[in-house]
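Two proteins were folded this term; both appear here.
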Amino acid sequence: MDVADRYFNCTDSERAAFEAGIKLGTVYHQFVGAPISKYNVDVLEKSIAEGAKVQPFVKDAQVAIDRSRLREKSTEFDYLTLTGDMLDVKLSVKFKDVEVICEMKHIEEMGYPLMYVKEVKRN
């Protein structure tokens, strides 16, 4: 039994969507600003995904960082930081018999890294 359940006045679907949104927000706010280069991009992607997977109700996490945005350093003091428009994140969150597939990706026409519910499955 979920010990926090008594605090939520919503359906299981609403709770699953809430949990999914919290996880995407955590990914964004925890990692945007992290130093990034072609040498650490693989490790950073894995770290973000594995960090998301340990949160409650996360069933799976996939993270891709747009490598076309990476560049060589121009000086010793130059480096890039991860921005929201570089992230493509897919999470599967399962709460009771509801699974929510959510995504975060940059939507060009909006100029924004949108977080959204892609699919809701009831088992």
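Next, the second protein.
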Amino acid sequence: MRMHRKPHLDERLLACSDILTSPDLSDKNMKRAATVKDYLDIKKIFNNQNPVHLEIGCGKGKFALEMAKLHPDINFVALEKISNVIIEGCENLKKTDIKNVHFLNVRAEVLPKYFPEGCVERIYLNFSNPLPKQSYIKQRLTYPRFLKIYKSLLISGGEIWQKTDDRGFYEYSLQSYKEEGFTILSTCEDLKNEPFAGNVVTEHEQKFMDMGLPIYRIVVKV
């Protein structure tokens, strides 16, 4: 079902420009666009040099905002490609006094445009679209082309924390990490019954747990 464009979206995005970086849409070729560097000035954005954590596919931003409150000494960049969705996170952030979150309204393919190599301590992939059809495999966020991007952005020893409700996507991702040379630190096939300290439950996670569905988790490092 097609999502209706939110009223006055452009004006609302502009009003959030202090906490939101919007895409340069001059080049529709994502691979080529990623080579034209326009790095985020992390020190200027956050006014510090704290470690950077990146959430890819942040949706409405609940996870990033909750994590930021728990970890004020970490800078969180929350990426979401859909403007209609990210605006809710931006406007929710502006209602708070949280200073360690910045939103990025771009596709994951162009991350190298905005981040230099070796600058991110941790990446979160929370309930990414599993895209089960084989014809969409190259668009999965744990497909090798994306893992190569993440590997380049992460510091030595940097980690990826992934959660999903989809068994097939969990197994596919686990295999992809192994094939791309990541070290598997931990796996979990029922997060509700094997919780970990400091877990921030996303909207999707709560919904699926209420339905009695297992939540899968993978932690890997470079």
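The two ends are 38 Å apart (CA to CA). Residues 167-179 form the longest helix (13 residues). These notes refer to the second protein only.
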